[in-house]
Amino acid sequence: MGVGQTELDIVEAADTTVVLLVPESGDTIQTMKAGIMEIADLFVINKADRDGADRMLRELRMLVHMHPRYEWWEIPVLATQAHKNVGIAELYTTIEQHRQTLTTTGQLLVRRRQRRQKDLLALLQQRLMAMLAARLEQDEALQKLNEQVQEGQVDPYTAVEQLLERRDILL
């Protein structure tokens, strides 16, 4: 998967996040700016036989060492050459080690609990928004307030405060 804001959601769904880079993906500082330093449980530089791979490997290892993300796991940076099956066994073993570390430290349970809580809140938000939207269409006072916001007569912050003061908003 590519690296963009929506793709970073993978961290919400996976127990182990492997960030795969290639030497052509640019400089290591750009990698940090893209936000993927915060999601990786391990880094893999594939096509490690290409120019720039050694430099990227060194820089990433240095960055990971200088900015540890976890107390319980040191993020590895591996080199692979998938087309030659180089480093693939080490990658698989490292993923298994991460899984074992998640389990023994209790972090697997923590991650899954956090994920379920976020799922609950997201679903709740979705349902509440649907209920509010339906209510907005049915209630004359809410329609009037909505129109005032659209016309710029009432700012959205004030409107939200007025809506939250109503006890019957979801009834």
Structure description:
The protein has 171 residues and is mainly α. It has 2 domains: 100 residues, 3-Layer(aba) Sandwich (Rossmann fold); 55 residues, no CATH class. It is 54% helix and 6% strand. It is built from 6 helices and 3 strands, in the order E-H-E-H-E-H-H-H-H. Helix 2 links the parallel strand 2 and strand 3. The longest helix is centred in the C-terminal third of the chain and has 32 residues. The two termini are 43 Å apart.
List keywords for this structure.
single chain, 171 residues, mainly alpha, Rossmann fold, 2 domains, three-stranded parallel beta sheet, 6 helices, 3 strands, 54% helix
CATH superfamily of the largest domain: P-loop containing nucleotide triphosphate hydrolases
Please state roughly what percent of the residues sit in beta strands, choosing from under 5%, 5-15%, 15-25%, 25-35%, 35-45% or over 45%: 5-15%
Euclidean distance between termini CA atoms:
43 Å
The major pleated sheet works out as: 3 strands, parallel
How many beta-strand elements?
3
